[in-house]
Structure formats: structure tokens, C-alpha cells
Amino acid sequence: MIKSMTGYGKAVVETETGRTTVEIRSVNHRYGEVFVKMPRSFLAFENDVRKAVGDRLKRGKIEVFVQREEGTAGQHRPLVNVGLARAYREAFDHLRTELGIYDPVTLPLILSQKDVLASHEEGVDEDMLRGEILQAVRGAVEAIDSMRVREGEALLADLTERRQTLATLIGRVAERAPAVIAEYAQKLRERLAQLLADTALDEARLAQEVALLADRCDVTEELVRFRSHLIQFDETIALAEPVGRKLDFLMQELNREVNTIGSKANDAGMAAIVVELKAELEKIREQVQNIE
Question: Could you tell me which of 155, 163, 166, 167 has the C-alpha nearest to residue 243?
Fold first, then answer.
């Protein structure tokens, strides 16, 4: 199945313990890399999040953003250390007496002292919290995957059309190849006739020269391999798995065959077709870079 590597997905899970928001975005990348950004208090869940994403999204640079708003069951409540507050009060009263200072010891002064007030989070079960986070992650993965599939369908339509263009162009190469030899033989015959004037033309020697050129310009093997790669291309885009790397490899092989044909072509017409082939292959290669 053709999937794009670019996409965005978001999911929100709300329970009495809080609201979890997960956003995922992905861009093109040679390999599959998952980057997770979440509150430090959730770092214990990072590997679970990474695995949930990586099991579904195989390729691309994937960024996962996890946010959490605590609900009534997970709020931070102030915790007062009364014993410590009383000790501070006694210490301040003692200082007032010793130093002869009669300013009152106020409540804000006592509360501002270290550890008199502490924040206490009412217990939220860790497994429950992990489940809520992973539920949001799976929802976001589903959303981004659906988007990547839709973009993949558009890519598939474009690739299919361009593949037909390649088949048409390589057909023109196959048609042109025999004509190149025939035209060369005719031009060589005419040139020799002019040079030799009334001298008889050595047909055997002419045939030998034409045969040597035909051997140098023969692109039969390249045509066979090119068409074989096109068949592999068709088979690959029909696979129900990530195919981006396989298609990228096939593009390299197709381009190699075209380069060889171009180096063998001793003909302006053939060279023009090769230029068209290279241009079309480059457009396909750019599209393949977007495929998972």
C-alpha cells in the first residue's frame, strides 16, 4: 500500500482524572525515527508511547507531543506542615525578644518559609494514567495514518500515470534502435561512394563496419532489464507494506539502464528520447521520496 510520509494527527482523551492531548506530525526521512516530547513526570511512559507509534508508522521523522491537564482526581492540593510552622513561629518570637524587635510575626511570613507549604498530588493510578495516554496516542496515530493513506492514494495515481509514460518512452527507444543502424549503414555507404568515386565498394568491409557499430549500439539487454524493472515497479506498489525504499532502489536501477542507453546511442533522435526518460524518472524519484 502506498502511504505518504507526511501527515498530522490529533486525539484527546478526557476522564475524571484529566485531559490528555496527543499530537503527531511526520515529515520525510530516510529511516523511521520517533521523537517524543512530554512532561518529565511522564517519562516512565516514553518507551510505551514510542512503541505504539513505531508499530504503525514505519518510516519518516515522527514527532509526538503529549500534554496533560489534571482533573479533579489528579489535582495538586496544598499540604501544611503545622509542626514546622509552629517551630518557625517560636523561633521568630525568640528573635524578637533577643533583639528587642516588636514587629508582629505574620502568617504570610511563616508561610513563606521553606517546606511550610508543600504541593501534594492526589493519587492517580499509574496504570490508569498509562492507559489514558496510550489511548490518546493510538487515536492520534489513527488520525495521522488515515491522512497518510489519503495522500498515498494521490501519489499512487500520479506514479501509475508516469509509469505509463516510461513504458511509452522505452517503446520509442525500442522502435528507434534498429533504425539507427540502418541509417548509419546508408550514410556510410553514401560517404564511401563519394570518396571512392568509380572504385567498386567493398560490401564485405561495409558489412563489417556496420556490424561493429550495431554491436556497440545494441541496447537489447538494457531494454529487457528496463521492462523487467517496470514489472517489479507494478508488483511493488501493490504490496500491503511500506514500499518507499524498494521503489527508491528501482528508480536507481531504471536510471542506470537509461544512462547506459544514452551512452550507447550514437543518434540525436535516441538522445532526445533519453532526455525525456531522465526527466520523467526524476519526477518519479521526487514522488518516491514522499512514500513510506
Answer: 155
Instruction: Give tens-digit pLDDT for 93-152.
Output: 888 888 888 888 898 888 888 888 866 555 567 888 899 999 999 999 999 999 999 999
Residue located via cell numbers 550514437:
266
CA distances to 73, 258, 285 from 201, in Å? 103, 37, 51
Non-local CB neighbours of 176 within 8 Å, separated by 6+ positions: 267, 269, 270, 273
Cell numbers for 219, please give them: 541496447
pTM of the full structure = 0.69
Q: How many CA atoms lie within 13 A of 23 on its CB side?
A: 6
C-alpha cell at 71: 482533573
Query: Cell 526518460 appears where?
Result: 277
Distance CA 19, CA 218 (A): 69
Q: How far is CA 168 from the centre of its chain?
A: 30
Convert the pLDDT of each residue in 244-282 to its tens digit: 999 999 999 999 999 999 888 777 888 899 999 999 999
* C-alpha–C-alpha distance, residues 1 and 241, integer Å: 6
